[in-house]
ABC transporter ATP-binding protein (Micromonospora zhanjiangensis), 340 residues
Amino acid sequence: RAPLIELRDLKVHFPIKSGLLFDRTVGYVYAVDGVSLSIRSGETYGLVGESGCGKSTLGRGLLRLVEPTDGEIVFDGTDLRALKGEQMRQARRRMQMIFQDPLSSLDPRQSVESLLVEGLKAHGLADDKAEVRKTLRDTLAAVGLPASALSKYPHEFSGGQRQRIGIARALVLNPELIVADEPVSALDVSIQAQVLNLMEDLQNERGLTYLIIAHDLAVVRHIADTVGVMYLGGLVEEASSEDIYREPMHPYTKALMSAVPVPDPTVEDRRERILLAGDLPSPANPPSGCRFHTRCPWAQPTRCANERPQLREVVGGHRVACHFAEEIADGRLRPHEVEA
Ligand code: SF4
Ligand code: MG
């Protein structure tokens, strides 16, 4: 299937201003620094990484909710960054966002009805009252809420129900692409699976394409077809969900996965624990060369600190941004000890 959306070398840099004497730019936060990826129609792409890696900014940049600094966003064959005003508004209807905390993203003084109608109004789709009413009821039914929810307010619902309202709000505009930023991380574990299952059902019924952003690898494991891992503004690894969980190849992904507890505590965990040196560097002052070299247990002198590795296909469909991916995979390079 053709890509529905494709990012080409996307960059989102935020200027750091010094407001003291002059309002001048003293540097940049390189939140997203050259990411290329594509998402096929009907696919679920899981984007994971620690907080501060740029994954949320990437999601917002992709929708132009923050303006990218450079690069292309090709949506259904059109470069979004070239669209203006009305054209961009039309395109935006086709791409909706679901946020982490439904309470903070929903206005507590607005009824569910007015929350849902808002988007329709913004796109001039709220003129026919009977049709609006039907759309709202159908949308609520699709997310498993009764029509009586329309006259209620967000605080009258549980966390899981509120996220269903957040999903309904995105769905009401009949989008093709949904960017979901941490859609279940504010919910109890028992509710997380319900919401993810609902998202999967909706995808199957409506042919939706998802970009699901999460810091928790377990969240995207089953729902994602493809998983991308971000570190300090860059994509360091990308593969099918199956391949990346079975054999993570980038040292950063290996470390992330080694920190995830095995699901069955009676099974002996034979995986090697990979400890990372130091803290996440600031995205305003990222390390030279491979951005992971200051923490990488496999880092090699000179090259890792000097040359930025490109994301490249190492084995079929598995892309890794590491100079030594092959040597690490076949054991020619061993990790060095890291002082904890
Ligand atoms: Fe580690 Fe070097 Fe690979 Fe970067 S390029 S992940 S520092 S081995
Ligand atoms: Mg985030």
